[in-house]
């Protein structure tokens, strides 16, 4: 959901994970670049390093849980969503993705050795008989000596019998868990239902300890004893890890449990570790993978800390601005910060002030002779940050200091070292001395919420409101209004503006993009008091998020709730290319709800409600 449709975003505590998502024909840049926090699988290595599978690719972390390397579709992975990990021979790992498997060498560099495309791989088990692969919706395959063999699933008419979630070797044979059809066992060359039943046959994980098979299901934790399933705990059980004689249990909503010496107790509560997707052990500490990052749990106190404090504290990105090698990032729920030394070896630094709200709506930044200046819009007003070295100075503005509203929707740099600010009620121009000039009722704008702002090539201010597009020029007191009724827009709720030369691209909430092309200056036609005349072309594109338009060469990019969209335009940009259609840019960001587009030197930085990406 975009900020237009979100009233109270859910807070998350996310850790750093690198994401490099580059669609076909795009240029990939070197070095860890972008971040997501949805972690699905973890695997400890003999060196003490950890491999993490995320919905945005594979990540190698060192002992301190710092990012070392990444793999994604940009590097040849068949898919970015990594659900399963398994150790392979000679410092290699097997990686199960939503579109097949990969064998990757870990050292000296993380490198793909081989890959095979297939359905979503949810389970992997490496044995002397080969690699067993559980494919969701297809069943179980065996890979040995480069030969793939498929095992039939027989004895059950349940549609989920082929939806494999887990595979484990126990008592000389293979067992497989399914997403709704219960437990299966390999009999001869066929997987058949095991002679054991559960109230609900949704199985997520299997683990062996002390010659017992433990089964994690949606209804709880079970232990198979004498052919019967004994319920040990009613928590929704999703993951296991074994250390010595202890079984660690990750649940979905009840925290982390531990079974040791036949005693089961809660080791870390839900509030500390959240909903567990996977877990592993590192030096007697549990590394827990959740949808909101990693948590590291240690000693018998059950205390936990957020792993990798160098990471962005939220994947819910609202705004970005790049100044040199510093990427400023605003989030919807965890405030403001920046990635220093971007993109070579970025490290997150949080910016905390009582003048900043945790919900950042908009920001813009520019370099100065001594540092940089950042303007930040929140629900509580506008904050100007001057940064010189490690020192920062904050100046805050709101209704009490002259702004028309505390709610700031949009901020853009304009001429004369000023910023144009869209608020919950009209707009304002703020100069470097922090003098405020309101654009409002005197300029033909009676109390409109301004969601988008820009300045065109004639130094006229463009203001996107819920009642159309307003253009306020220095030579005219009244702003010209362009709406559905004037024939210029397909929707009067304007959410994004991008201008180049005589062309204005106007993004709207529900009816895509309108392209306005200036045809001349006249008192006739659609002009008023000497305002320019604009023709209009409707390009479509769906729901455009605030600030979500960018022109890259002759390609128009739109940040939408349905992903990053691209549309080719004529080389001169004036008009529409015959037969042109909007296309979804795959793998540009870890989430579909794209919020920001920012220009870097050789790529674009794409923000979403699930992290940052690169195009």
- The whole-number mean of residue pLDDT values reads 85
The gyration radius over C-alpha positions equals: 28 Å
How many extended strands? 57
Q: Which sequence of strands runs across the widest sheet? A: 3-4-5-6
What does this structure look like?
By secondary structure, this protein is an all-beta fold. The protein is elongated and about 90 Å long.
Describe the structure concisely for a colleague.
The protein has a 4-stranded antiparallel β-sheet with strand order 3-4-5-6, with no helix packed on it. The protein has a 4-stranded antiparallel β-sheet with strand order 7-8-9-10, with no helix packed on it. It is mainly beta and 615 residues long.
Give the topology.
Layout (H helix, E strand, L loop, with lengths): L17 E2 L14 E2 L3 E6 L5 E5 L2 E5 L5 E5 L10 E6 L4 E6 L2 E6 L5 E7 L3 E7 L2 E6 L3 E6 L2 E5 L12 E7 L2 E6 L4 E5 L2 E4 L9 E7 L2 E6 L2 E6 L2 E6 L3 E7 L2 E6 L4 E5 L2 E6 L1 H4 L2 E7 L2 E6 L2 E5 L6 E3 L10 E7 L2 E6 L4 E5 L6 E5 L8 E8 L4 E7 L2 E8 L2 E7 L10 E7 L3 E6 L3 E4 L5 E4 L10 E6 L5 E5 L2 E5 L7 E3 L11 E7 L2 E6 L4 E9 L10 E9 L3 E9 L2 E6 L2 E6 L14 E2 L9 E6 L4 E5 L2 E4 L1
Antiparallel strand pairs: 1-2, 3-4, 4-5, 5-6, 7-8, 8-9, 9-10, 11-12, 12-13, 13-14, 15-16, 16-17, 17-18, 19-20, 20-21, 21-22, 23-24, 24-25, 25-26, 27-28, 28-29, 29-30, 31-32, 32-33, 33-34, 35-36, 36-37, 37-38, 39-40, 40-41, 41-42, 43-44, 44-45, 45-46, 47-48, 48-49, 49-50, 51-52, 52-53, 53-54, ...
